Every structure is written in C-alpha cells, then in structure tokens.
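ok, trying the design again with the full structure, not the truncated one.
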C-alpha cells in the first residue's frame, strides 16, 4: 500500500511527534508513504476567500493525482478541507473548469481520479482491524480511554464519509484494538475549543476544560485524539490550564499512533512520547506494571475537579 503523505502546516511545527509516530506505525503495518511538496490545504482562509481556499486544496489534489497516489493525512482539518473541495469539484463542473484553468499554468490538472483518506481510515479499512490486533504484543488491559473524534472528520457526513456523524464507532474500535476500553462520555462529539483559540482564549479554554472534566468523570485515564488541532488543544492548552489552575485534574492526551505503537511494543521515544507537553510517563509505565490494580494506579489516579 502506498499513499502520498499530506502533513499540513501545523504538524511539523506544533506536533512533530504526530508525524513521527504515524510514520513508524504505518511502516510496521506495511504502508509506504511518499513525500510530495504539497501546499496549505486552504483551511485558514476558508471563511476569508473561498476561491483561494478551493484553489489551494485543488492544487494538492492535482499534485497527488499527478503522482498517481491517494492522499493520507493525519490532520482532520486538512482531511475535511481536501474532502470538501474534492466534493465541490465533482459536483460543480464550472468550478472544476475554473480551477483547472488556473492549475494549467503549472502543468497540473485535477480530474477526480484520487481519494483523500484520514490516517484512521487507512488503519481501519486498508490495514484492517484484524491485522492491527495481530500486531499488538503489549495490550493495555484495564486502561480506559476517552476517544475524541473531532469535528472535521464527521461533518458534513455526506462529504467526509468517515463514519456515522451521529453515532461513530470506528475510532472506538481502533482504540480497543490496543486492549484498552473506549469509555462512553457525554461530550465525546463536542468541539475541543481550538477554533476559538486566538479569538476568545477564555471561552476556548472553558470548552476544553469542560471536556477534560467530562472525560475524567466518565472514568477515563487518558484522552486519545487523531487530529492536529485537537492535540494542540488537549496537550498545549491543557498544560496552560493546569499551570493557571494547578494540577488537580489531569487527563493527558495521547495521539492514536502513539497509543497503537506502544501496544505494538514500539519504544516511546521512537513514537515521540517525550514531545507531548502533558506528561505521558504513566501510560508508558502502565505496560510494565505487574497487575491490573497497579496498572490503574500508574495510569492516573482519582478524578478531581479543575475548577
């Protein structure tokens, strides 16, 4: 299996461990990644200049098509943007003609011959849950995880076609491949708060804090995400919340390829675990704990309020 890797703009600077872990895990799963010189997916200008947004995403689609490769992206915002533009170009002939007229100056053309896939989709559908389960050598038995789906992979459902937008299960199944339990929590599908960061930081942190409290009250030891922006919010912003309010409640966020990689027996350093800002030492130690009760103690401890 071979895909063109679309990192997006945020991963290399803010969460390079996401790329590191994804590459290591995908390699172990027999997935080859090809580096293409993509540009921004257009997400930051989506509400500022629609034409610039479409052209930006369309150029990436055309570059992948030129290579004859489907796209794999770990970023759900990039996934949502690329999927939306691919959908628009398929539905609107006039828009595709306008875009291709602009792309022609670079010798590019988009005809809709490639697909856009999220990392989780590739692991779930192309690699397969059964294959992943066979690769798990150190299951997280007794560990409870709150899976956070993120907004851009699920909505609009007819465009992204990632999972049931109201009652998704694929991410939960992928988490449970590692031996962990995916807990049900009321705020599971609500926004992480990142779209408000830099515009209304107090409200952004409030949304994040509510989700952390909700996940912890549901019994989760850790939060698991597979989105660049969500990881920034639940890792970097959570660290800021903790510094402002103390360490009364911590619900560390682990990227899915890090969780999967650890369960496959891959060393934490190779998965970029030390780069996470909210300490993940507990989950690394969890695998070496002697018993279930000791494991649960090493995972986190009892829930407390941030507020």
């Amino acid at each position: 299996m071979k895909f063109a890797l679309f990192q997006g703009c945020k991963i290399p600077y803010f969460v390079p461990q996401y790329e590191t872990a994804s590459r290591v895990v995908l390699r172990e799963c027999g997935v080859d990644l090809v580096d293409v010189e993509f540009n921004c997916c257009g997400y930051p200008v989506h509400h500022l200049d629609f034409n610039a947004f479409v052209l930006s995403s369309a150029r990436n689609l055309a570059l992948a098509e030129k290579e004859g490769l489907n796209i794999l992206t770990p970023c759900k915002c990039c996934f949502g943007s690329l999927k939306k533009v691919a959908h628009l170009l398929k539905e609107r002939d006039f828009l595709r003609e306008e875009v291709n007229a602009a792309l022609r100056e670079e010798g590019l053309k988009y005809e809709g011959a490639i697909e856009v896939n999220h990392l989780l989709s590739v692991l779930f559908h192309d690699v397969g849950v059964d294959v992943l389960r066979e690769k798990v050598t150190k299951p997280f038995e007794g560990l409870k995880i709150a899976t956070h789906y993120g907004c851009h992979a699920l909505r609009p459902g007819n465009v992204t076609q990632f999972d049931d937008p109201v009652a998704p299960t694929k991410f939960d199944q992928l988490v449970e491949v590692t031996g962990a339990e995916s807990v049900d929590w009321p705020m599971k599908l609500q926004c992480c708060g990142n779209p408000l960061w830099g515009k209304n930081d107090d409200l952004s942190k409030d949304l994040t804090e509510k989700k952390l409290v909700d996940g912890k009250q549901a019994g989760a030891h850790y939060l698991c995400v597979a989105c660049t922006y969500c990881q920034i919010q639940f890792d970097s912003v959570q660290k800021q919340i903790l510094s402002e309010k103390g360490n009364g409640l911590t619900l560390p966020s682990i990227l899915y390829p890090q969780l999967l990689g650890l369960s496959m027996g891959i060393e934490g350093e190779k998965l970029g675990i030390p780069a996470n800002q909210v300490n993940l030492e507990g989950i690394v130690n969890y695998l070496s704990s002697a018993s279930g009760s000791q494991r649960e103690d090493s995972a986190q401890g009892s829930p407390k309020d941030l507020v």
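Keeping the full-length input from now on. The first helix runs from residue 10 to 14.
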